[in-house]
Amino acid sequence: MYDVAVVGGAAAGLTAALYTSRQGLKTIILTKDIGGQALLTPHIENYPGCESIGGLELMEKFREQATGFGTEFAYEEVKEIQKVENWFRLKTTINEYSATSVVLAFGKTPKDLGVPGEETLVGKGVSYCAVCDGPLFKNKVVGVVGWGNSALEATIMLCDIAKKVYLVFRSAQMVGHSALIQDCMKRGNVVPVPRSMVTEVKGEPVLESVVLKDVKTDETRDLELEGLFVEMGYVAKTGFVRDLVDVNAKGEIVV
Hints:
The structure is a single chain. The chain is of the alpha/beta class and 255 residues long. The chain has helices spanning 11-22, 55-68, 130-133, 148-159, 178-186, and strands spanning 2-7, 27-30, 72-74, 78-84, 87-92, 96-104, 109-110, 126-127, 141-146, 164-168, 190-193, 196-202, 209-214, 220-224, 227-231, 234-235. The chain has two domains: 2-109 and 235-241, FAD/NAD(P)-binding domain; 119-232, FAD/NAD(P)-binding domain.
């Protein structure tokens, strides 16, 4: 039983956990990734105390500080929260957790691919957080699917860990900050896969391959991978707390 369960691993959730852990409360953060939308920007210049810092680097500092005070992390998406007498049961895609209090700080959640096999292989090769899970794939062949700066930054980070990194994107050219694109292109172990989308994730009991579809010709092929990092952007998901809090017509929590 935790004193506090924080749902969300971006700036708000990490800050909440830092405060509760520092007060001696047993705290866990449940999140699909670390950093949230801060990962979308390579340069932050208006955070006090930092003249210029990347979103990824800043959020990693948040995580390290929270960890230093004892915060635990579970990289899982919360699917349901139930009120049970004077405590809460939190159900994720993998496990169940209990806590006497819950902090909702999830903001926007990383988008799923929404393809067969994805949910089954979360934590078994499929990840939504390169910072969190990248080190587990040292010298392995991995893929990043997505677009924009978050996908590029994940690819660059994984280049220093994995043997080969496939970057899968739907457009004909990479999209994102020019400096990040140039960095990706000069890496010797990055393989761009343009005009493609993932239609299925395969493997038993762990990820073995993905099915890629050419968005122009509709042709499909299997790509063998040991890890898949999904960087598809973010969406607000409040359905799992509709019975606990008030939401407006847009599904936003009323505060």
